[in-house]
Amino acid sequence: MSMNVADVMSWGESVARTARISAADLGARRLGELRRAVRDERAAAAAEPLVVAVMGAPGVGKASLLNALFGTDFPVGGTKEPPGRPELRESTGNTGHILKFWDMPGMADSWAGRPAMLDALITSDVVVWACHADARPAGCEGARLRELLDSAGPDHARRVGGRIAAVLTKADLLSPPPWIFDARGRRGSFVPGPALAARLERRAARAEQALLAPLGDLLTAATYPTADPEGRPAGILPADDGRLRGDRHAVRYRGHFSGSVHERYRDAHPEHADVLGRLRDDHRVIPCSARFRYNLPRLLLALATRVTPAAVFRFQRMLDDAAALAELPASAVARHANLVRWDGERCRPAVAGPAC
Q1: Which uninterrupted H or E stretch holds 291?
Q2: Most buried among 123, 147, 281, 354, by the most CB within 10 A?
C-alpha cells in the first residue's frame, strides 16, 4: 500500500477543483479571465494561516507535536489546569508561513466554554485528537464529543467529524520492550521492536473504540482511487447501503470504517483491497512521538486527507521536507537513552566494544 505526502496532496488538489468548464462554453477570452481569477483565489487561500485544533488533556504533548510536524515554536512543557475553553496560539513554521493552533481541552475535562469549543472545531481546517499513549482514554470522551457536535446540527457535525485524526502521543515513554534506532549513515529513525509494536497496536485499537467509534456516522474515511492498468482511476463500486462511494477523484466511506467493516467490504470487493486498506488506515489511531519523530510522516498523511478543500493549498505551504520528517542525527541518539555504558577505567562514556 504505497502512499506519500505528494500523492495525497496532488489528490487533494484534484478534489478541490470541482468545476470543469470548457472553452466552447465560455469563449477563450472569458476562460482566460476565469483561470486568472482561480489562480488569484488559490494564491490568496494559500497565503492564509493554516488553522489546526488539537484536543487533549494538559501534558499530552499538543504543542510538541505541532512543533515537530511543522517546525513551529509553540511553548511546551506547561501542564496547568485547562481553562475549559479553547486558547488560540500562533507561530511561524519552517517554511515561513503561519500556523494558528487552537489549544482545546480534553473531552473528559470540564468545559465552561462549550460554544467557543464548538466554534473552534467548526472553523479549523483540520482537528487532531491527542491521547497519551501511556494512559487509558476515558470511556466518556467519544460520547461527549458526539453530544457536542450533535448540538451544532448534522451538517456542521459531519464536517468536523470528517476532519478528525486521533493520535496516541509520547509513545517513546512506553518501554520496555525497547525501541530500536535504525541508523543509516549519519542519520536514522526510531522504530519499536516487535513486542512494543504489538503493545502500541493494542493501545491504539482501544483508543479507537473509546474515541472514534462513538462518533459513528459523523466520521468520513477518504482516499484516492487506485488506477487501472492503463493509469486511469478505477474507482470502486458503491455499497448497497450507500455508505461507500467512489469516482475518478476520490473514494469515501460515511461512518466509522472499523476493522469489521473493512473485512466485510474487502470480502465483497477483493479487487479493491488496496483502496479499502487505505480507508481502514484512515480511521486507525496513530501512535506517535514528537521526541523520537516516530510516525510523524504517517500522521502528516492522515492530516493531508482531512484538511478542508479550501485549506489544501495552505497545508502544502506549511510542509517542509516531509521525507526527512522521521529522521534524527545519529549523534543525537545518546540523549534519548536512559542507559549509558560507562568506561570505568578511562572515566568516560564507552563508545565501542561489547556491552558489559
Answers
A1: none
A2: 281
Question: 10 Å Cβ neighbour count for 316?
Answer: 20
Q: Is 232 helix (H, G, I), strand (E, B) or coil?
A: coil
**Do the beta carbons of residue 48 and residue 314 sit within 8 Å?**
yes
For 43-101, the pLDDT digits (tens) are 666 678 999 999 988 889 999 999 999 999 999 876 555 566 889 999 998 888 899 99
User: Do the beta carbons of residue 335 and residue 341 sit within 8 Å?
Assistant: no
Instruction: Specify whether the CB–CB gap between 91 and 101 falls below 8 A.
Output: yes
Q: How far apart are CA 168 and CA 131, in angstroms?
A: 5
Residue 43's DSSP bridge partners are: none
**% the chain with pLDDT above 70:** 73
Q: How far is CA 72 from the centre of its chain?
A: 16
CATH of segment(s) 5-219+283-349: 3.40.50.300
| 349 three-class SS | strand
Rounded CA separation 189/209 (Å): 29
Query: For the chain, what are the domain ranges?
Result: 5-219+283-349
Give the pLDDT confidence of 296-314 residue by residue, as tens digits: 999 998 998 898 877 888 8
